[in-house]
Design goal:
Elements lengths: L4 E2 L5 E2 L6 E2 L4 E2 L3 H15 L3 H14 L4 H6 L5 H14 L5 H14 L3 H14 L4 H13 L3 H14 L4 H9 L18 H14 L4 H13 L3 H18 L4 H14 L3 H14 L3 H17 L3 H14 L7 H21 L3 H21 L5 H21 L3 H15 L9 H13 L3 H7 L10 H13 L3 H12 L6 H15 L1
Antiparallel strand pairs: 1-4, 2-3
């Protein structure tokens, strides 16, 4: 049965442009499914993943072949997400050209074909030059390819067509300060606190009841160590969550906890992390919140307490409603963090055992994926080889590390995406440094190994610079790590070490 073509008819008018924002066409058999789909997109913008998933699932129950709903739907169950994406690919030719192009962009990204993805996004713009959406999509692709000036142009064009495009303002903001996607952070010459504030304020203007907007605005003050000012914005976001019942509350508590941790109030930070985990409903969210209880201890150089938190987290996973694939993935992630923590404690046997358990669970998980491609298996293989090389480097088994890294290079060097060799370069830099050849290590610690991108590798880059007589450059890196107010396990492992380097 042929589907009825439904097109979103709402038009946005720019105050500074006469261009009408013409939405991309959407194919579905049901007006109700379309309504639910649009509601899901609004929830996503507010970090309300649970509601977004529920709305998308409801839309797909009405129209299982809804192309874009299948393309963008999330789920706790990894197998269900694979099912959605498979249906999007299978049905792409049954929709509009715009929908087919969007699915092809996803396929190109999945396969690491960045140039093809950008080309397809440009094709979408050619077909729909008066729509803001293709410019946002192109901006996202250009960000991934590290083409920041072009990405800024694309996002800016989107705001000119639709000044209320939260996605476009977020794209511009994401280039200014560190967020979850390290690849989006633009070079220093394209960044400023003033720009970050402007874009964050625009998001608040466009979405004044969106807690995400206030959290992002608070992150600017946290970056600058203005913790009390940041606290006001985090509290505003939390107030909105409490007033609306928003499922963004766990994330809001989390980032507020980060603010307390970096201000030196570890007790309150832990209270925030515990509450974030307690109020989270989805197992994936509970797991993610739980990571930071361990990471807090890493920042305080208490690796044994971190290990206890990760172990406790692993024991809780069975009770949080994961499907088989999701449970395997979650256990693998926690075990990886245990591997790394133990490695830094120089617990060789225990560390290796956790790494192998992590790998075994990932191997089981990918075998459950009936749609897994050769690319998926290769990606998993290179990740495991890199992790084993990491282990061998930390335990001074350099010949073994080099053999593993050669396998990584064989796979990753064939990919066209900009960051394909980042981990390889970071590990080879560590290898040469620990072998006593800091000069050679700097050939691998290239311009992409920065504090914002890879705090962990950046610390070792600082050691290499110091060892080769570039003390000022080294101290700059150590100081930046010591004052880097964004939480992550890599930064947690080296922050105390960097502080000691600054003091020495």
């Amino acid at each position: 049965m042929l589907k009825k073509l439904l097109i979103i008819t709402t038009l946005f008018f720019s105050a500074c442009s006469s261009i009408e924002d013409v939405p991309l066409p959407i194919t579905t058999s049901s007006e109700k499914a379309l309504e639910l789909y649009n509601e899901a997109l609004e929830f996503r913008k507010k970090w309300e993943a649970r509601e977004a998933q529920q709305k998308m699932a409801a839309a797909l129950r009405i129209d299982p072949n809804f192309i874009l709903a299948n393309l963008y739907a999330g789920a706790e169950e990894a197998s269900l997400v694979r099912q959605y994406r498979s249906r999007a690919v299978q049905n792409k030719s049954n929709g509009t050209e715009a929908e087919e192009i969007q699915v092809d962009i996803w396929i190109a990204n999945r396969e690491g074909r960045q140039n093809d993805a950008m080309g397809l996004a440009k094709k979408l713009i050619e077909k729909y030059p008066n729509s803001s959406e293709p410019y946002v999509i192109l901006g996202d692709m250009q960000s991934q390819a590290q083409q920041f000036e072009k990405a800024i142009e694309s996002y800016t064009k989107a705001t000119e067509i639709n000044p209320k495009s939260l996605d476009a303002w977020f794209g511009l903001f994401s280039h200014q300060i560190p967020i979850n996607y390290y690849y989006k952070l633009a070079p220093q010459n394209l960044r400023s606190i003033e720009k970050a504030i402007y874009y964050a304020d625009k998001m608040i203007e466009v979405a004044p009841n969106n807690p995400r907007s206030y959290n992002l605005r608070a992150n600017i003050d946290r970056k600058e160590s203005n913790f009390e000012e940041a606290k006001k914005y985090y509290q505003k976001a939390l107030d909105i969550c409490n007033e609306t019942g928003s499922s963004a509350k766990p994330t809001t508590l989390l980032v507020g906890g980060h603010n307390h941790m970096f201000s030196g109030d570890n007790k309150t930070a832990m209270e925030f992390y515990k509450e974030a985990q307690d109020v989270a409903e989805a197992g994936e969210t509970k797991r993610n919140m739980g990571y930071y209880k361990g990471i807090l201890h890493l920042y305080n150089n208490d690796f044994y307490s971190a290990l206890e938190e990760f172990t406790a987290l692993e024991e809780q996973l069975d009770d949080w409603g994961f499907d088989k694939s999701g449970l395997l993935a979650s256990k693998s992630e926690v075990q990886f963090r245990k591997f790394f923590t133990l490695a830094h404690l120089q617990e060789k046997e225990k560390s290796w055992n956790e790494l192998k358990k992590s790998q075994e669970n990932n191997n089981k998980r990918i075998k459950l994926n009936e749609t897994a491609t050769d690319q998926d298996y290769n990606n998993l293989k290179q990740r495991q080889m890199a992790d084993e090389a990491w282990f061998h480097i930390l335990f001074a088994e350099y010949n073994k590390a080099e053999k593993k890294l050669s396998m990584v290079y064989e796979i990753q060097s064939k990919k066209e995406n900009v960051g394909a060799l980042d981990r390889y370069n970071g590990l080879y830099g560590m290898l040469y440094l620990m072998k006593g050849d800091p000069k050679s290590s700097l050939k691998y610690f290239n311009e992409r190994i920065t504090v914002q991108n890879f705090s962990y590798f950046a610390y070792f880059k600082g050691l290499a610079l110091k060892a080769t007589g570039k003390g000022d450059d080294a101290n700059s890196i150590f100081t930046e790590i010591a004052n880097y107010n964004f939480s992550g396990w890599g930064a947690g492992l080296v922050r105390t070490l960097a502080e000691k380097q600054v003091e020495s």
